[in-house]
């Protein structure tokens, strides 16, 4: 597997990056335990001009400051006080673009994923939805700010090819507050994959 490099993340088009992350592999290694899954659903957040983004209007807080850093870092935030949501920061310093990883298809370390999710057998809930992505892979808010070029958390290309006709674009989930921006086709998912969350 070839780890994605800084040039991949530092490009200007966050929507294109979100689409190209479909099929890549998200890997974590904590305490010597490797878990990974293929990314099958993403959402792009277009920074200061996107009403659905935490950084809309260049809003800077202690939580969002990581989004204004360099591309290739992790942005992990807590949703509803329980779900740790993993995002990839893209573009260059001071341009707060990010891609939310919404679903993965488990590949390696499945026993560990089941243990983390308190399950006894593999089903589609393992890795379906952004909260379950983090839970299965052991990612939490204290990983926010981690580089994606180290050993703990990274995204890699294992040569898996996805035809663009098998990547579906739709509006994002749960961003109704974003007015007209809620309708933007910034969500991407792998066609007919059982791990994809929300409406197909």
TrEMBL record:
It comes from the Bacteria. The keyword Ribosomal protein does not apply. It holds the Pfam family Pur_DNA_glyco. InterPro entries: Formyl_transferase-like_C_sf, MPG, MPG_sf. The keyword Cytoplasm does not apply. Gene3D superfamilies: Methylpurine-DNA glycosylase (MPG). It is an enzyme of class 3 (hydrolase). Keywords: DNA damage, DNA repair, Hydrolase. SUPFAM superfamilies: FMT C-terminal domain-like (SSF50486). Its EC number is 3.2.2.-. Belongs to the DNA glycosylase MPG family. PANTHER family: DNA-3-METHYLADENINE GLYCOSYLASE. This is Putative 3-methyladenine DNA glycosylase. It comes from Pinibacter soli.
């Amino acid at each position: 597997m070839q780890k994605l490099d800084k040039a991949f993340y530092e490009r200007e088009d966050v929507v294109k990056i979100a689409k190209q992350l479909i099929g890549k592999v998200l890997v974590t290694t904590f305490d010597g335990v490797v878990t990974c899954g293929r990314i099958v659903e993403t959402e792009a957040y277009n920074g200061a001009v996107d009403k659905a983004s935490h950084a809309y209007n260049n809003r800077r807080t202690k939580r969002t400051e990581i989004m204004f850093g360099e591309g290739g870092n992790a942005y992990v935030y807590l949703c509803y006080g329980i779900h740790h949501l993993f995002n990839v920061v893209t573009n260059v310093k001071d341009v707060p673009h990010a891609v939310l990883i919404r679903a993965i298809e488990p590949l390696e370390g499945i026993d560990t994923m089941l243990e983390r999710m308190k399950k006894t057998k593999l089903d589609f809930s393992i890795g379906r939805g952004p909260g379950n992505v983090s839970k299965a892979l052991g990612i939490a808010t204290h990983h926010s700010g981690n580089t994606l070029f180290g050993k703990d958390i990274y995204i890699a290309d294992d040569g898996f090819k996805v035809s663009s006709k098998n990547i579906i674009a739709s509006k994002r989930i749960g961003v109704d507050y974003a007015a007209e921006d809620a309708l933007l086709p910034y969500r991407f998912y792998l066609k007919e994959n059982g791990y994809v969350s929300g409406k197909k």
